[in-house]
Structures are given as structure tokens and as C-alpha cells.
Design a protein that fits this description.
CATH class: Alpha Beta
Strand content: 25-35%
CATH topology: Dihydrofolate Reductase, subunit A
Shape: globular
Oligomer: single chain
């Protein structure tokens, strides 16, 4: 059986994953609520294996080390306690993460092997370059985009799907969280 690979992205309505000064939105663009946080925690029930690119992995480690408020959220704790794989040619030595494996080599080959071998679903949060290449390679089964109610046209950085190539999207699920945030789940098809 092949494990499902889900790409999980946070985005402004206009497609940005983060922001630069003078923007000061905060974690979750300042739009988190109890329903969103509870739903995020449920996504990590059963301990999916998390797959990271090196940059996103370093960002999570830094966030946890700095004890930023988002680091205390239940879903982050669940993600950190589950097994993780980092696809990287730059990480060396021990990592500040309980159960992490660093895989070198072609990301598509690594993820293809993980999908074939894993007995739990695979989930990747962020990791825009890594997941863009996997979307282009047709290895992503589900594309989950959480759209926060804001436009970051002046300060937005990191367009979340800039590296994805052209995709047709089949809508699988939608939900509204806290009366304002939309979660859209698609099955992507490479064009």
C-alpha cells in the first residue's frame, strides 16, 4: 500500500505564506482561533510522518528553541513527537528533534521511497521548494491550503505555490474555521 502524501500550506488570500517588515501579522497571520487550533491538532492524530525541507525544518527548530507562542500549540507538539524526515544536502550532525532522519539525494526519489515504505500517512507543512518539486513530479496526493482572511499585497513574501508548476485541482473538502478561515483540500493533477 502506498502512503498518502499531503502538502499543508498556510496562505493569505492573495497567496503569500509569510510577510516582511513593516508587516507584523504574527503567527497564523494573527488570525488563529480555537476551532483552527483544535482542527490542526486532530490532523496529527495517529502520528503521520512529517517531511520537511531543510529551511522549514530549521525554522521550526528555531521557533521551538525561542519558545514563540505558536510553538506551544498542540499540533506543533504532536508534529514534533511524530517521526520526521528532512530532505537536505546541507544538514549535518545531530538535530534538535526527537525522531528525525536526514535523507540526502533527489527529493522525488526520497519521497517516492517513503510513500512505498511508510505505514502511516506523510504530511509536509510549508517546505515550499521541496513541495513545489513534488507537486511538479506528481507525487502529492492532497494539497491542503489554509487561507487566512487577509491580503498581504504590500508585505507578502513567499508565494506558496510559485514552485508548483501548472496544476488542475480537484476539490475534495472545504471547511470554515472560526467563522473566517477557509481550509481547502484538493487532489492535484499535473498539467
Amino acid at each position: 500500500m502506498t502512503a498518502t502524501y499531503t502538502v499543508d500550506l498556510f496562505s493569505s488570500l492573495d497567496g503569500y505564506g509569510s510577510y516582511a517588515p513593516p508587516g507584523d501579522w504574527g503567527g497564523y497571520f494573527g488570525k488563529q482561533g480555537p476551532e483552527l487550533l483544535a482542527h490542526r491538532e486532530r490532523l496529527f492524530d495517529g502520528g503521520p510522518r512529517t517531511v520537511f525541507g531543510a529551511t522549514t525544518f530549521r525554522q521550526f527548530v528555531d521557533m521551538l528553541r525561542d519558545e514563540r507562542p505558536e510553538a506551544l500549540d498542540g499540533w506543533v507538539a504532536r508534529m514534533r513527537s511524530a517521526p520526521a524526515t528532512v530532505v537536505s544536502s546541507t544538514l549535518d550532525g545531530p538535530q534538535d528533534w526527537p525522531d528525525v532522519t536526514v535523507e540526502r539525494g533527489d527529493a522525488a526519489e526520497v519521497v517516492e521511497r517513503l510513500k512505498a515504505e511508510s505505514d502511516v500517512p506523510l504530511r509536509s507543512h510549508g517546505s515550499l521548494s521541496l513541495n513545489g518539486s513534488l507537486l511538479r513530479a506528481g507525487l502529492v496526493d492532497r494539497l491542503q491550503v489554509t487561507v487566512f482572511p487577509l491580503v498581504a499585497a504590500a508585505t507578502g513574501t513567499d508565494p506558496v505555490l510559485a514552485a508548483a508548476g501548472d496544476l488542475d485541482l480537484e476539490l475534495l473538502e472545504t471547511r470554515t474555521l472560526d467563522g473566517r478561515t477557509q481550509e481547502l483540500v484538493y487532489r492535484p493533477h499535473v498539467r
